[in-house]
UniProtKB/TrEMBL annotation:
Entry protein name: ABC transporter ATP-binding protein
Transmembrane segments: none
UniProt-listed CDD domains: ABC_TM1139_LivF_branched
Pfam entry (one): ABC_tran
Keyword hit for ATP-binding: yes
Domain ABC transporter: 5-237
SUPFAM superfamilies in the cross-refs: P-loop containing nucleoside triphosphate hydrolases (SSF52540)
Lineage: Bacteria, Pseudomonadati, Pseudomonadota, Alphaproteobacteria, Hyphomicrobiales
Gene Ontology MF terms: ATP binding
Species of origin: Flaviflagellibacter deserti
Cited PROSITE patterns: ABC_TRANSPORTER_1, ABC_TRANSPORTER_2
UniProt keyword Transport present: yes
Amino acid sequence: MSALLSIRGVHTYYGNIRALAGVDLEVNQGEIVALIGSNGAGKSTLMMTIFGAPRAREGHVVFEGRDITRMAAHHIARLRIAQSPEGRRIFARMSVLENLQMGSVVAGAEHFEEDLERVFTLFPRLKERLTQRGGTLSGGEQQMLAIARALMSRPRLLLLDEPSLGLAPLIVKQIFDAIRQLNQTEGLTVFIVEQNAYHALKLAHRGYVMVNGRITLSGPSAELLSREEVRAAYLEGGH
Protein backbone atom coordinates (compact mmCIF):
# COMPACT_ATOMS: atom_id res chain seq x y z
CA MET A 1 0.00 0.00 0.00
CA SER A 2 1.27 3.47 -0.83
CA ALA A 3 1.17 6.25 1.77
CA LEU A 4 -1.28 8.98 0.78
CA LEU A 5 -0.35 11.07 3.83
CA SER A 6 3.03 10.95 5.61
CA ILE A 7 3.80 12.94 8.72
CA ARG A 8 7.51 12.85 9.48
CA GLY A 9 9.18 14.17 12.63
CA VAL A 10 6.61 16.94 13.12
CA HIS A 11 7.08 19.41 15.98
CA THR A 12 4.36 22.04 16.44
CA TYR A 13 4.35 24.89 18.95
CA TYR A 14 1.89 27.42 20.34
CA GLY A 15 4.30 30.26 21.11
CA ASN A 16 7.01 28.58 23.20
CA ILE A 17 4.83 25.66 24.25
CA ARG A 18 5.49 22.49 22.31
CA ALA A 19 2.23 20.70 21.41
CA LEU A 20 3.65 18.00 19.11
CA ALA A 21 7.03 16.38 19.73
CA GLY A 22 8.40 14.53 16.69
CA VAL A 23 5.23 12.88 15.39
CA ASP A 24 5.58 10.15 12.72
CA LEU A 25 2.38 8.81 11.19
CA GLU A 26 1.19 7.40 7.87
CA VAL A 27 -2.21 7.02 6.24
CA ASN A 28 -2.24 4.68 3.24
CA GLN A 29 -4.54 4.93 0.24
CA GLY A 30 -7.94 3.36 0.99
CA GLU A 31 -7.40 3.03 4.74
CA ILE A 32 -9.24 4.32 7.77
CA VAL A 33 -6.66 5.31 10.37
CA ALA A 34 -7.59 6.42 13.89
CA LEU A 35 -5.62 8.62 16.25
CA ILE A 36 -6.74 8.18 19.86
CA GLY A 37 -5.65 9.76 23.10
CA SER A 38 -7.00 11.67 26.05
CA ASN A 39 -8.16 15.27 25.95
CA GLY A 40 -5.22 17.65 25.46
CA ALA A 41 -2.91 14.96 24.04
CA GLY A 42 -2.35 16.97 20.84
CA LYS A 43 -4.70 15.09 18.48
CA SER A 44 -6.54 18.15 17.16
CA THR A 45 -3.27 20.08 16.89
CA LEU A 46 -1.96 17.38 14.55
CA MET A 47 -5.14 17.60 12.47
CA MET A 48 -4.77 21.39 12.20
CA THR A 49 -1.04 21.13 11.45
CA ILE A 50 -1.87 19.09 8.33
CA PHE A 51 -3.74 22.19 7.10
CA GLY A 52 -0.93 24.54 8.16
CA ALA A 53 -2.64 26.32 11.06
CA PRO A 54 -0.54 26.11 13.18
CA ARG A 55 2.45 25.28 10.96
CA ALA A 56 4.92 22.55 11.83
CA ARG A 57 8.10 24.22 13.11
CA GLU A 58 10.11 21.10 12.31
CA GLY A 59 9.43 18.01 10.21
CA HIS A 60 7.32 17.45 7.11
CA VAL A 61 3.72 16.84 6.07
CA VAL A 62 3.69 15.00 2.72
CA PHE A 63 0.58 14.30 0.63
CA GLU A 64 0.90 12.03 -2.42
CA GLY A 65 4.67 12.49 -2.36
CA ARG A 66 4.36 16.30 -2.30
CA ASP A 67 5.61 18.32 0.68
CA ILE A 68 2.69 20.51 1.84
CA THR A 69 4.25 21.66 5.14
CA ARG A 70 4.55 25.32 4.05
CA MET A 71 1.60 25.38 1.66
CA ALA A 72 -1.31 27.82 2.23
CA ALA A 73 -4.49 26.22 3.60
CA HIS A 74 -6.60 27.07 0.52
CA HIS A 75 -4.01 25.39 -1.73
CA ILE A 76 -4.08 22.31 0.52
CA ALA A 77 -7.89 22.16 0.16
CA ARG A 78 -7.46 22.21 -3.64
CA LEU A 79 -5.43 19.01 -3.39
CA ARG A 80 -8.76 17.47 -2.30
CA ILE A 81 -8.01 17.12 1.40
CA ALA A 82 -11.21 17.92 3.30
CA GLN A 83 -11.70 18.45 7.01
CA SER A 84 -14.71 18.12 9.27
CA PRO A 85 -13.34 20.11 12.22
CA GLU A 86 -13.86 19.63 15.94
CA GLY A 87 -16.93 21.53 17.13
CA ARG A 88 -18.54 21.18 13.67
CA ARG A 89 -18.08 24.85 12.65
CA ILE A 90 -20.83 24.91 10.07
CA PHE A 91 -22.11 28.24 8.73
CA ALA A 92 -24.88 28.77 11.27
CA ARG A 93 -26.73 31.53 9.40
CA MET A 94 -26.69 29.68 6.08
CA SER A 95 -29.19 27.00 5.08
CA VAL A 96 -28.21 23.35 4.81
CA LEU A 97 -28.15 23.70 1.02
CA GLU A 98 -25.91 26.80 1.18
CA ASN A 99 -23.50 24.98 3.52
CA LEU A 100 -23.29 22.13 1.01
CA GLN A 101 -22.75 24.60 -1.84
CA MET A 102 -19.82 26.09 0.10
CA GLY A 103 -18.36 22.60 0.41
CA SER A 104 -18.60 22.01 -3.33
CA VAL A 105 -16.54 25.08 -4.34
CA VAL A 106 -13.31 23.05 -4.69
CA ALA A 107 -14.94 20.33 -6.83
CA GLY A 108 -16.88 22.77 -9.02
CA ALA A 109 -20.51 22.71 -10.15
CA GLU A 110 -20.21 19.86 -12.63
CA HIS A 111 -21.11 17.06 -10.19
CA PHE A 112 -23.15 19.11 -7.72
CA GLU A 113 -26.51 17.36 -8.12
CA GLU A 114 -24.91 13.92 -8.12
CA ASP A 115 -22.88 14.74 -4.99
CA LEU A 116 -25.96 16.15 -3.29
CA GLU A 117 -27.79 12.86 -3.83
CA ARG A 118 -24.78 10.98 -2.49
CA VAL A 119 -24.76 12.88 0.83
CA PHE A 120 -28.56 12.63 1.11
CA THR A 121 -28.30 8.85 0.73
CA LEU A 122 -25.80 8.81 3.61
CA PHE A 123 -27.67 11.36 5.74
CA PRO A 124 -31.38 11.43 4.73
CA ARG A 125 -32.10 13.85 7.60
CA LEU A 126 -30.26 16.61 5.74
CA LYS A 127 -32.63 16.36 2.79
CA GLU A 128 -35.56 16.99 5.14
CA ARG A 129 -33.73 20.05 6.56
CA LEU A 130 -32.52 21.46 3.23
CA THR A 131 -33.87 25.01 3.65
CA GLN A 132 -33.29 25.20 7.40
CA ARG A 133 -30.51 27.35 8.83
CA GLY A 134 -27.51 25.36 10.00
CA GLY A 135 -27.65 26.94 13.46
CA THR A 136 -31.17 25.62 14.10
CA LEU A 137 -30.20 21.95 13.55
CA SER A 138 -29.62 19.52 16.42
CA GLY A 139 -26.04 18.65 17.37
CA GLY A 140 -26.22 15.35 15.49
CA GLU A 141 -27.63 17.01 12.37
CA GLN A 142 -24.91 19.67 12.50
CA GLN A 143 -22.26 16.93 12.63
CA MET A 144 -23.85 15.19 9.65
CA LEU A 145 -23.84 18.54 7.81
CA ALA A 146 -20.15 19.17 8.65
CA ILE A 147 -19.20 15.76 7.23
CA ALA A 148 -21.51 16.16 4.21
CA ARG A 149 -20.01 19.60 3.49
CA ALA A 150 -16.52 18.05 3.53
CA LEU A 151 -17.68 15.24 1.20
CA MET A 152 -19.04 17.76 -1.32
CA SER A 153 -15.43 18.64 -2.22
CA ARG A 154 -14.91 15.04 -3.48
CA PRO A 155 -11.94 14.50 -1.16
CA ARG A 156 -9.06 12.10 -1.72
CA LEU A 157 -8.48 12.27 2.04
CA LEU A 158 -11.16 13.01 4.65
CA LEU A 159 -10.00 14.34 8.03
CA LEU A 160 -12.52 13.90 10.84
CA ASP A 161 -11.87 15.63 14.15
CA GLU A 162 -13.91 14.24 17.08
CA PRO A 163 -17.04 13.36 15.06
CA SER A 164 -18.75 11.67 18.05
CA LEU A 165 -18.22 14.53 20.53
CA GLY A 166 -21.34 15.26 22.57
CA LEU A 167 -23.65 13.11 20.44
CA ALA A 168 -26.18 10.43 21.43
CA PRO A 169 -24.99 6.82 20.82
CA LEU A 170 -27.58 6.22 18.08
CA ILE A 171 -26.38 9.26 16.10
CA VAL A 172 -22.73 8.23 16.62
CA LYS A 173 -23.54 4.78 15.18
CA GLN A 174 -25.23 6.35 12.15
CA ILE A 175 -22.24 8.63 11.46
CA PHE A 176 -19.67 5.85 11.88
CA ASP A 177 -21.73 3.52 9.66
CA ALA A 178 -21.72 6.21 6.95
CA ILE A 179 -17.92 6.57 7.17
CA ARG A 180 -17.47 2.79 6.97
CA GLN A 181 -19.78 2.64 3.93
CA LEU A 182 -17.82 5.39 2.12
CA ASN A 183 -14.60 3.53 2.74
CA GLN A 184 -15.95 0.15 1.64
CA THR A 185 -17.90 1.26 -1.44
CA GLU A 186 -15.75 4.16 -2.70
CA GLY A 187 -12.37 3.39 -1.16
CA LEU A 188 -12.36 6.79 0.58
CA THR A 189 -9.25 7.31 2.72
CA VAL A 190 -10.11 8.58 6.21
CA PHE A 191 -7.98 9.90 9.07
CA ILE A 192 -10.05 10.18 12.23
CA VAL A 193 -9.13 11.81 15.53
CA GLU A 194 -11.38 10.55 18.28
CA GLN A 195 -11.62 10.52 22.08
CA ASN A 196 -14.01 7.57 21.90
CA ALA A 197 -11.25 5.00 21.43
CA TYR A 198 -13.56 2.00 21.22
CA HIS A 199 -15.66 3.38 18.35
CA ALA A 200 -12.62 4.72 16.52
CA LEU A 201 -10.64 1.46 16.69
CA LYS A 202 -13.69 -0.62 15.75
CA LEU A 203 -14.04 1.53 12.62
CA ALA A 204 -10.37 1.87 11.65
CA HIS A 205 -7.93 -0.54 10.02
CA ARG A 206 -5.00 0.84 12.00
CA GLY A 207 -4.55 3.11 14.95
CA TYR A 208 -2.07 5.36 16.72
CA VAL A 209 -2.09 6.37 20.39
CA MET A 210 -0.95 9.88 21.32
CA VAL A 211 0.21 10.95 24.77
CA ASN A 212 1.52 14.49 25.44
CA GLY A 213 2.19 15.24 21.77
CA ARG A 214 4.01 11.98 21.07
CA ILE A 215 2.95 8.74 19.39
CA THR A 216 3.40 6.03 22.03
CA LEU A 217 1.78 3.04 20.29
CA SER A 218 0.66 2.06 16.81
CA GLY A 219 -0.60 -1.03 15.03
CA PRO A 220 -3.64 -2.81 13.62
CA SER A 221 -6.82 -1.71 15.41
CA ALA A 222 -7.69 -5.19 16.67
CA GLU A 223 -4.24 -5.46 18.22
CA LEU A 224 -4.55 -2.07 19.95
CA LEU A 225 -8.03 -2.96 21.26
CA SER A 226 -6.62 -6.08 22.90
CA ARG A 227 -3.62 -4.37 24.54
CA GLU A 228 -3.90 -4.05 28.29
CA GLU A 229 -2.49 -0.52 28.50
CA VAL A 230 -4.91 0.73 25.84
CA ARG A 231 -7.86 -0.93 27.56
CA ALA A 232 -6.87 0.48 30.95
CA ALA A 233 -6.29 4.03 29.69
CA TYR A 234 -9.07 4.44 27.12
CA LEU A 235 -11.62 1.63 27.23
CA GLU A 236 -12.44 0.87 30.85
CA GLY A 237 -15.73 2.07 32.22
CA GLY A 238 -17.65 1.64 28.97
CA HIS A 239 -16.29 -1.41 27.20
